[in-house]
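Figure 6 in text form: structure in, sequence out.
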């Protein structure tokens, strides 16, 4: 009887510890119903998976990349690493194109901030910063789409994980800090512990220390550009800043790029 009670104590202790993990969003928003989406064979339907880096409303470049990758065909499944919108010239058109494709995407820090400003505007009738004025043109379905973007997408059949910012090694997805998913670029060492950091200064690229499980595809880190490590690939190549919009086919690892038509924002 004592052994059984001790086992039950350990089970409930672990459940309590898990429930106290920092699972609130960066902007204290209502969390999506599915924080960690898993795509199975039924979702993929034998399509090639093409993962696309940070678009930031660069609609013309996105159109060109989709044509180059033949994404209008039913045999290609586009997945976006977040920051689909904001800063660039055509956020609304870009979002609508993503939805038209029935593509998947994870949440980026700019989707999170856009939602924060939208709800502040609706609830408090507040002033929206100029760079977020585009959110006034979104309908309820489009807002709901942004709200329900997961923080991660896993594709077990491809041993792939998609996230916007990064993942701290040695911590399960369910126990990661949600803000780290959309803001981290680097890791700081504190003894034997690795701590997520949004700063690249004097810190190590988190992807350089990732050794699995799974190959992670991510964005967010335009400063480092295209990152290619054994178990992680960074796809933010600064289209917004005059660089490239980048995509990669998961099976072949073939990378496609479209040069930005101009500098939309000074780095």
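Output sequence:
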């Amino acid at each position: 009887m004592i052994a059984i009670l001790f086992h039950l104590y350990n089970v409930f202790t672990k459940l309590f510890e898990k429930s106290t993990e920092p699972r609130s969003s960066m902007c204290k928003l209502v969390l999506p119903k599915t924080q960690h989406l898993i795509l199975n064979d039924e979702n993929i339907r034998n399509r090639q998976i093409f993962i696309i880096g940070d678009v930031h409303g660069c609609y013309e470049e996105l159109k060109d990349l989709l044509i180059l990758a033949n994404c209008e065909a039913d045999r290609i499944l586009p997945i976006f690493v977040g920051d689909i919108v904001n800063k660039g010239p055509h956020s609304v058109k870009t979002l609508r194109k993503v939805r038209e494709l029935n593509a998947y995407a994870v949440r980026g820090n700019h989707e999170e901030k856009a939602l924060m400003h939208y709800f502040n505007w609706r609830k408090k009738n507040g002033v929206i910063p100029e760079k977020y004025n585009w959110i006034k043109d979104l309908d309820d379905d489009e807002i709901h789409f942004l709200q329900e973007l997961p923080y991660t997408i896993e594709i077990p059949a491809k041993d792939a994980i998609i996230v916007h910012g990064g993942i701290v090694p040695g911590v399960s997805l369910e126990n990661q800090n949600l803000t780290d998913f959309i803001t981290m670029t680097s890791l700081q060492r504190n003894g034997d512990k690795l701590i997520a950091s949004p700063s690249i200064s004097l810190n190590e690229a988190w992807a350089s220390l990732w050794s699995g499980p799974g190959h992670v595809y991510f964005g967010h880190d335009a400063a480092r550009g295209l990152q290619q490590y054994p178990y992680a690939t960074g796809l933010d190549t600064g289209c917004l800043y005059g660089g490239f919009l980048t995509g990669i086919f998961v099976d072949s690892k073939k990378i496609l790029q479209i040069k930005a038509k101009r500098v939309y924002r000074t780095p």
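Caption detail: The radius of gyration is 19 Å.
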